[in-house]
Amino acid sequence: MKTLRAAKAGMGVVYEGTDLALQRKVAIKRMRGDFRQGSAFTEAFLSEARLALPEALHLLGQVAAGLDHAHSKNVIHRDLKPGNILISNEGTAKITDFGIAHRARTPDPHLTQASASGTPPYMPPEQEMGSVSLESDVYALAVMAYELLTGGLPFPGPDFTAQKRSMRMSPPTARVPTLPARVNTVLSRALDARPEVRFHSGGDLILALGAEDPSQGPDSGLMTPPA
Asked: Considering the entire predicted model, what is its pTM?
């Protein structure tokens, strides 16, 4: 494979190359050394480890901020999961791999149609049917929150579709009794099979998880259109 440097990106360098076997142009991404792909997330999940609520909110809050920024540009990620999170040596979380991201074609991207791409444990039911919205990404963020706090998936499969549509899952406090009761209520809403019931931004979800009382969290969940 022949390569030449194409451009520098915020988290690394992108090279333009030619795959001699396939005879086509390719892009090669080389990450900066101070970012570790999915380190805190993936390692914790593979070992079924858990983070305390404050630590989880610290990491998830950064992911939510990045997600909301993408949404403000009408970009839906469609494959948010632990393996697509980069953690710097300083503990900064960044979202990566927008390879199947969808750019909404209207100012209101709700119920935008798209192909059914993604990772089954983190995909909401509507995405499996080829429809995505901002709430689809928020659903994936909620799956990550559940997993980070409990060490397990809310819907472990193998019949992901049936489990997600029936919304039958173990309450987080059943797995970790020391979690605040509000976590059950917040994640139950965030993992609802109906997009309109969920939180409408990642920030709203994180605020509700961090509130001492669910009523202190945002109730509208409506995003403010970018200026």
From this structure: 0.72
